[in-house]
Amino acid sequence: MRRSVAKTVIPIEVREAFKRAVDLILPFKCPVCGGVADIKDRFESYDDLYISIYGTKPELHICGKCLSMLNISDEDRRWFLCLSNPVENDPCPGLALYMPFPYKGIAERAIPAIKFGKNKELARLFGTVLGSSLAREGIRADLVVPIPLSEERLAERGFNQAYEIAYPVAKINSIPVAENCLVRTRDTGRQSDINDINKRAGNVRGAFEVSTNWDVTGLRVVVVDDVATTGATLHEAAKVLYKAGAAKVLCVAFAGNRNVKNAEPF
């Protein structure tokens, strides 16, 4: 005859106390540098903003040293021409790129942690910072559109980092976000694996189209990606949005490597 074993129910107060004790013994690791994530008690303003956007507390654990490296570029180093090397007969000449952070320090280490370490919370932090920066610039638009991933890359990664950055940008600036406005027509190779500027442009040429579910005629659209280097990906997205009837397109990236500046606003 099989004997029944009574299950022990541990009170929630005991479980919480145990969790706090474990956290003291085994503190959270910073996903950027691997050090002890000590920022929790000094990051309440982000918690409040995150709750207003997502309705729940963040699960981000990051160290103060890495957070202190999140320094926005000087005002005259945030606006650029989208293409690092402008081309003749460009269908959208003078396309502007807003990129407030250089791709170094925390950005250089955190972006790979987002993409390949699948750290969605870091992407949301960057999106919140980017959205707040755009709000201070006084940007006005009708739609926020993230650069889409291919189905293969989305399945591999589990989320689209551009969307995770674009969502708080949209919420902070009270602009609707259109996750599926742009569609990938084909899977492309990783831009980061291609050094040649012309090959980068060719890699994404014809890679996007505007979904038939969206009408962007006459709209001011903000296109968002995580990183811009040559600007080819954002430029290709802007090109199809203009072709679909958008009145104005602003390209936005959290970070990138660019020296030549363009101070013209959106």
How would you describe the overall organization of this protein?
The structure is a single chain. With 266 residues, this protein is of the alpha/beta class. The chain has two domains: 13-67, no CATH class; 71-256, Rossmann fold (3-Layer(aba) Sandwich). Helix content is 36%, strand content 14%. The protein has nine helices and eight strands. It has helices at 12-25, 44-54, 64-68, 106-115, 120-137, 151-157, 161-172, 197-204, 232-243, and strands at residues 79-81, 96-98, 101-102, 143-146, 182-184, 208-210, 220-228, 248-256. The strands form two sheets. Strands 1, 2, 3, 4, 7 and 8 form a six-stranded mixed β-sheet that branches. Strands 5-6 form a two-stranded antiparallel ribbon. The termini are far apart.
Give the SSE map:
Elements: H1 12-25, H2 44-54, H3 64-68, E1 79-81, E2 96-98, E3 101-102, H4 106-115, H5 120-137, E4 143-146, H6 151-157, H7 161-172, E5 182-184, H8 197-204, E6 208-210, E7 220-228, H9 232-243, E8 248-256
Parallel strand pairs: 2-8, 3-8, 4-7, 7-8
Antiparallel strand pairs: 1-2, 5-6
